[in-house]
């Protein structure tokens, strides 16, 4: 089958790889109909992780079940399904408590597993024609048959729940103001989710014109950090107080507005300055313990200079960690079906799988309006 294979920094190729097979009675094989390129994939694409050549990318996957293992009870051939990017067992302590992003079974020695991602277990990705899904009764979310809402439903694999998770970590409540740093797909989903949760005013901080325009289109206030300090811009619009809550949808490859260089802690420190005393921060943006391309020795080992003193002084709370997709995906699926949510507004391009190398390059460079790419094998 065809699959998107990492060859080295800034290089992926569509290659022939072995088609997956049923290996356990709880497996299913899914014929992929949609798979998305994630900003997290770009970390590997750029050589900013320990990913080795040969890994098949793709953790945002949906499709039609073609084969089922003998132990499957709730699924059948022909079911249309979307899979959380988290690979989870459903029975370990963390899964039982709802922390499926930190499963203790699927990636021995590490809390958490995912498809097609470095250090996240032995699970090939789904930017391919077929995908093996383990513990499938638990990991597959069934969808209505047909092809309606295809580009909405694919976002249930990761970015819609992850944006919502950022708001959950920050405990966004109706009537509150929220600052979202990062106008990429997750940041836009966080802003959108804040509005779904009843926020009265949402700011989105970025410098890419297409992203800021998308933020404006959904009713958020765009803040271009290239035009001045984002903290001051937001305080000027909140009577000098700052927002009630904040979400970091950028992570460790953040860029400072003043220097144009990477400063991995700049967003965290900006949020500490942006959010009012006793507010809360949600941090779904990715931070890693090892970054070969970090700007200094501390950053290369995941150690950042964060203004913990000011965070403590202001009595701020902070929630972190990757999304536990299953905690949210059924609820968000039903909101899509009922017409209450249309997350596909972030999708800028739908392309055949063969165009993945070009799509990666353009998405990485933020050119030609590339904000979110869905591939169709």
The arrangement of helices and strands along the chain is: EEEHEEHEHEHHEHEHEHEHEHHEHEHE
Chain oligomer state: single chain
Helix content: 25-40%
- Low-pLDDT runs of 5+ residues are none
Number of helices: 13
Strand content range: 15-25%
Query: What structural category characterises the helix and strand content?
Result: alpha/beta
Mean pLDDT: 96
Strand segment tally: 15
Q: Can you offer a commentary on this structure?
A:
The chain is α/β, with parallel strands linked by helices. Helices cover 25% and strands 22% of the residues. It has 13 helices and 15 strands. It has helices spanning 39-45, 93-96, 136-139, 150-153, 159-169, 185-196, 209-217, 230-236, 266-274, 297-300, 308-313, 329-337, 356-365, and strands spanning 2-8, 11-16, 28-37, 60-68, 80-83, 130-133, 141-142, 177-181, 201-206, 221-224, 243-248, 275-283, 317-320, 349-352, 373-376. Strands 3, 4, 5, 6, 7, 14 and 15 form a seven-stranded mixed β-sheet that branches. It has a six-stranded parallel β-sheet with strand order 10-9-8-11-12-13, with helices on both faces. Helix 13 links the parallel strand 14 (349-352) and strand 15 (373-376). Helix 8 packs parallel to helix 9. The longest helix has 12 residues, at 185-196. The chain is globular and about 60 Å long.
